[in-house]
Structures are given as C-alpha cells and as structure tokens.
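Sequence, please.
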C-alpha cells in the first residue's frame, strides 16, 4: 500500500426499506434519540482513519441539511439499487480522493457498529493490502430448501460467514468492479460480491453480533438495546 493512501467512508441511503412497512424510509426511523442513518454515520466517522463520508440519498431528500451540518460529510444523489447509490458516492469521492485510497462502505441501517470493530477492519486491511469486510461465522445449522418447503440437504457451515459492513476496498478497484458487474448483469448484493466477480481477493475480519442490520420491525428493539448499552456504558 502506498503510504499516502487515505481512508474514506460511503453510506448508501437512497432506499425505502420496504420490509419495515413504515411510513418513512427505514434509515430515518428513530431509535435511542437519533435516526438509524445518523447512528450509522456517527459510527463510521468514529473510526479514526476515516477522513470524510459521502452519503448517497434519494433525489429530493429534504433531510439532507441535517446531515451536512458536519464538515466531514458530503452528499451524492443515489439510485434505485444499492450498487447505483454506492457508485454515485464513489464518483463524488473521485473528485478529491486518489484511486489507491481505501473506501469503507457501511449500511445506513447498521447503527450499532462498534468503533473497535471498524478499527480492527482498517488495521487488518492496511496490514495486508487486501480488501476485506466484517463478517460473523455462521453458528446455526443451515438447510437447503426447495420452493415447496422440502429440505434438500444440510450445508457444511464450517466455511460459511454472514457478511456485515463496513466493507473496505480501494476506490479505483471498487468503481471498476461495480461498473463491470452492473454492465454484465451480474447479481451484486454487496461490494464484496462485486470485487469477487471482478477477480479481486477478498478477506473477512471477525465482527460482532451486535452489528445487526435493521431489516424488520422486530430489529428496532434489539438495536435500541445495544445503543442504550453504548450510551450508559
């Protein structure tokens, strides 16, 4: 890694989170006194190596002024898909960052990220020069199931990990991987899958179970518990 390479953050936040069945986009649901997006943004900014964060919002999002009150935050106009929003944010970064700089992409709905986990990810990537993501080993028994609900078999969980964020890769390589995968129509569910598709090595760094992604209404209570622990602790 070049010694002058810096670290930046990206948060795609242009979606609506339909599975929450809420009256507003999921990222603006409030828990422990702040929106999910604000908690996630604060967690990413708390990682010492991160110089600034670009947040990709939906076009016309009226909540933007509250986010840009922080001089370390910039905005981009996101798209219909996660990859479109990430790309939009990366293109804003390209206006002032170097292609060899590192980017940490974090979910808007992962409000409980511990700074220590983010610091461990950064340290591992900078030491190895290989992009990586926070992840957790799968501990449950995993069944492969047919469309009719019939169990087809049991998977070997010894090599299975649950992907989390942040996911940390070089700016130029991530842009190229996302653009290539989208052009090819590849199934891209996160940044790591785009990098894998492009042939780049990707590593995992053990994360924490508290770094949950708020997806359904029941997740809000657990996120509130973890965040209240952080506040009182």
């Amino acid at each position: 890694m070049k010694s002058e390479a810096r670290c930046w953050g990206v948060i795609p936040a242009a979606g609506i989170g339909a599975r929450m069945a809420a009256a507003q986009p999921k990222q603006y649901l409030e828990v422990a006194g702040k929106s999910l997006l604000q908690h996630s943004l604060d967690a990413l900014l708390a990682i010492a190596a991160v110089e600034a964060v670009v947040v990709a919002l939906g076009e016309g999002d009226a909540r933007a002024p509250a986010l840009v009150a922080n001089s370390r935050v910039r905005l981009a106009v996101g798209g219909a898909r996660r990859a479109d929003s990430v790309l939009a944010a990366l293109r804003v970064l390209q206006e002032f960052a170097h292609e060899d700089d590192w980017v940490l992409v974090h979910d808007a709905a992962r409000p409980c990220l511990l700074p220590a986990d983010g610091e461990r990810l950064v340290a591992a990537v900078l030491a190895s020069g290989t992009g990586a993501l926070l992840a957790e080993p799968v501990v449950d028994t995993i069944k492969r199931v047919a469309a009719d609900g019939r169990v087809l078999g049991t998977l070997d969980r010894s090599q299975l990990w649950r992907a989390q964020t942040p996911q940390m890769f070089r700016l130029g390589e991530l842009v190229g991987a996302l653009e290539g995968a989208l052009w090819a129509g590849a199934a891209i569910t996160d940044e790591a899958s785009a990098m894998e598709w492009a042939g780049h090595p990707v590593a995992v760094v053990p994360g924490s179970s508290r770094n949950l992604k708020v997806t359904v209404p029941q997740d809000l209570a657990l996120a509130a518990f973890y965040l209240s622990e952080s506040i009182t602790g």
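Residues 218-232 form the longest helix (15 residues).
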